[in-house]
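Task: sequence in, structure out. Protein: Cilia- and flagella-associated protein 300.
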Amino acid sequence: IYILYSYLGKPKTANLDKCVIIIKIMFSFTAQPHKELPSFSVKSQRENFEKWGMVQMNVQNFSYNNYFDLESKEDFVKAFFDDAVTKIAFKTFLKGSQCSLGHMQPVKYVKVKHLLSTVTNMGFFDRLFKNSVVRSCGTIKKCFDEMIDDVLISDELRKMMLTDESDYASLFTDEEKEEFIYAIFRHIVLGGYCNQYEDDVQPYIDATKYVYKDLMRVVKDPKTKNLSILSTVLKVEMFDENGGMIFPGNQSHAQNFCYFIINPEKCTILIWHHIRDL
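Result:
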């Protein structure tokens, strides 16, 4: 921790009462051994992600050496991408091939958004059935084909995820759309560039459940039996000196994403990202 003192008066008359203390926490990062997560590694899930076009996707595990403060989330993320270890160890995709972070353009600034993580029950998605986006049998309601943000829309579920003009755009509140579990579901439904979409919603819901469970640190109160989530989730984007996006992907798009899932107990980060760009 670096502590810098800035005196508000003349040096010879300054005292601690007139001292501003600026604390800058310095982070370093260590790549951890590959952690097999069933939601990404079991055969059925791998086949689903391939079917949905999510082939340029990666999950990696890192540790860090200092207390994480949500107020300094931008500094934390910037430190990660500037770190010499992560520039070699962090793997992403560039022009269809896997590469290390060091092969990308230098990061000028980062955009970091804190997502909510309060949902502990898959009943969160029951409203899809109650409001006819999904029929009682699980079939997703179809709509006329149209292109939105370079994504083919042929059902009401995808349309709801991409445009406010959908009849079901208000099915989830703005606050609920800030939940990490909603983001996972949205990414899985929209998939990647070459996506073979499902006619039934259940594979999407099941995959969302498995991914959420694997990525998040959940504890149960021994007395009340209630579940609570300890993980902090950050949505991350990187930009160059000209303001151009360089990660994840070269443009802000629903199919390009990166999340830092931070476990403050163990000082570890799971980083889940997907690149749409070919």
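Residues 1-14 have pLDDT under 50 and may be disordered.
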